[in-house]
């Protein structure tokens, strides 16, 4: 769906209601028309004049207002998208049960538009089995749940429960209504994602900071475009959407086995996982104890196979795409490092991103340059990892 959208922003009674102002602002800035439906609780946290000034429309609260225009269903019927931010545990329970005891409940029930929910509550409430079951119900019904993020909550406590940032909520919501080209129907796409963990003993491992977000975004984007997708998952910090086959591969050796098998029939294999270059020469069967190791512990590491290079050298029938994270000082240095890595690995394309202590890992955004054989730049993209994923697939499809 393109052009101006009729967006209903539902705001419910939590402290994060003040952040809903940011959500409305982003939609208005993008040129969309916003109708705010606020519960009575929401208006205790954020003022009606603020919401009206930012949305440029009257705020709707009362079920028995505008009866002549049948407003209790009109807002939902006219909506292209409904975003509820913040959604309290109470509202989530009401949505799961299909209650219509307020204007927001009626609006949601009367609508066929995609619904995006950004929960915000204390960790205990988020993790309560009642909320967990309600969220599962909403997900099964096709509702997109964005967040919650983890961090400082309203009191002294911290943990999962913070409402996601407005920009992230709006991006996820717009993604729901974005028309996706079904240009990968009938294609098989294999993606490796996450960071491997190489065990030292039953409780310890050598790992890396990869969250798996870019790899999961690639799998999600490929599935949305109609591909049949296999995700070879090392340690992931994000959930994988339904409809994607997941093969667990905690270590580099597991990835090698899984990807060799899956790539044999794939049209595209994308190696987005951060594979450990080395593993411990010895994996102890019992926990390493300080009493026996003393003040210094020396670990001997042995090189893992280079999976990407092995795969490329086996000339599978499909395209092979590598990723490279580099700590380069400039874009020129980054591209130079990438071009020589591409040559070394022998893959068809290499997607390069710059990493540092604060860039690249765990974030929701990414900035990449894609090189083809010979080191030519075929694409540059920055933005949400899902958008970057689509840009990568656009390049692969067009070639
Ligand atoms: N890769 C792989 N097997 C390894 C290491 C990396 O298949 N043992 C893949 C990654 O999945 C990625 C690409 O190779 O697609 C580049 O990873 P990177 O860590 O940047 O490359 P390395 O070869 O490890 O080079 P460096 O010495 O720069 O770490």
Mean pLDDT: 94
Overall, the morphology is globular
Number of domains: 2
The count of strands amounts to 20
| Secondary structural class | alpha/beta
In terms of quaternary structure, the protein is: single chain
Please state the second-level CATH architecture of the largest domain. 3-Layer(aba) Sandwich
List the total number of helices: 15
% residues in beta strands: 25-35%
Low-confidence stretches: none
In spatial order, strands of the major sheet run 13-12-9-14-17-18-19-20
Structure explained in plain terms:
- The protein has 15 helices and 20 strands.
- It is of the alpha/beta class and 399 residues long.
- The chain has two domains: 6-177, Rossmann fold (3-Layer(aba) Sandwich); 188-398, Rossmann fold.
- The protein has an eight-stranded mixed beta sheet with strand order 13-12-9-14-17-18-19-20, with helices on both faces.
- The chain is globular.
- The model has no long low-confidence stretch (mean pLDDT 94).
- Bound molecules: cytidine-5'-triphosphate.
- Residues 252, 271, 273, 275, 277, 304, 306-308, 322-325 line the site of cytidine-5'-triphosphate.
Please summarize what this structure is.
This protein is α/β, with parallel strands linked by helices and about 400 residues long. Helix content is about 35%, strand content about 25%.
